[in-house]
## 1
Amino acid sequence: MARTFSRLSESSISQTVASALDGNSLQNEILLSLPGRERATLFPQLEFVEMQNRDLLNQLGAPIEYCYFVNTGLASILNVLSDGKTVEVGLAGKEGFVGLPLVVGLSTSSTRVIVQVSGNAWRATAAGLARVLRKCPHLERKLNLYSQEFGLQAAQVAACNRLHGVSQRMARWLLMSQDRLGGERVPLTQEFLAHMLGTRRASVTVAAAILQKTGSIKYRRGTVEVLSRGKLEAAACECYTAMTRQLQNWRNEQP
């Protein structure tokens, strides 16, 4: 359970949150950006939870019970078709948040969100988030900005899935995952990556072989190791660069 900060000074809150909360390191960039007084308002509403691979966070069409400030690991946002097939339209890691409809007063999810890489998160109930948003203008602004960033990501990924080859898309996906996870290793299976990219496992096998041949990655069962970030960027399509450039432009525009 998250610690209550209401009796701490702003400097104590900042120091405590930046280092650890109840022994759990805080890495979520939205939470880290909050001023001390908003942390004091928000953190009593939060609970620290472990997320296991393939845990369901939000379900298509269902009421959103919890929102999540992802701390470590990776969540996959899936568009679900009428025949049950799914395709990934976005990722959320330590930069992000799951449960965006709640920010504008909506209560159901338009996507399915599952944990793709095990980790942990700070979560709040839908009612708890609604209570604090009215008192936390910085948090509300950061979540609105993140909704724009996620919309950009979803639009670019949709174009990428339609127009670019599997090896280019795989390179783009690995770069996005590494940005959110840190480190050089991305734990995943070919079967799961095929599911995320909306293609056949055989196509992922070929794509992984192409990227290994260029010296970009090394694939072992259940893990992809990024050997050369530069080579992986060169192997990716234009989508990764387009997204990162626009995100940086938006961040430069913020006061």
## 2
Amino acid sequence: MHLTLNKLLLLLLGAGIATTASADLDPFTTDGCSAFPDGTSEQQQLWHNCCVAHDLAYWQGGSREDRKEADQALEDCVANVSEPMIANLMLAGVTVGGTPYLPTRFRWGYGWPYLRGYKVLSVEEVEEVRKMSADALKTVQDHAVGENASQPR
């Protein structure tokens, strides 16, 4: 009986993954560095742009290798604004917290329905990402304008 229940749960989970994999992509959203500061107390938006670019990669999702590249790009970006210790801390955070298997708003592939996991984008999905990227770019630009407005002169 116990083995049959486990098989049923796996079957239902698998059906959910198959169903969500073909669903539509939600519009891009970003909250900057999610549960982490966007900068230092002196420069409050110092690595914000790094996080927004990282969110763009996480929104569209993809393979496990795509995620590793996105996380490395975040670490490199933050390190390049002269904060290598923060960059290491952020990499550790996204490595643990960005898993696609937690129902968070900042998980890998958060633009797609939950439980997509790691999956290379199909040709159709790449086209959907491309179409929605104009709106995503507008969101990124709006964040950059807001960031520049809040920088001390």
## 3
Amino acid sequence: MSLESLPDEVAGGDVTAYRRALGAFATGVCVVTADSSIGPLGITINSFTSVSLTPRLVLWCLDERSERWHAFCEAERFSIHVLDAQSEALARRFAKGIGLMEEREFQRVGDAPPRLGAAAARFDCKTHDRVQMGDHMMIIGEVTGFEASGAAALTYFQGRYGIAGGAQA
């Protein structure tokens, strides 16, 4: 992290250049799922990070311009799915629009949030905190359950999807 001021062209509103610069950081791709008043929803994110091991806390960020803003801000439980390398279509499916899930796209296990079938890892969470920061809401979740498959993960770098890792022998 740099404490230096942003260049004038970025501070002055050159959003495209700023987004391009941010795209130089490769990220994983996740889909967050939650129940809402209109049914189960999904949203693609790349703003997932671990916050704490004890207690188990993670966070993700939600753009206030999202059509799913209210549903995810109000959700008390959600699941974060780190997508596996074969899930680019799923990432694209939940990247825009309402993100209403079809019954064939998810499973129910007890009273957990809707779960996707294919994921390199999944974290079931209850909302721990919400913090408005600029034009995004940081949603901090307390992890109540998790699993990892060891599969290679879907990545995003400079506007393109890619693959990282996989199980090591």
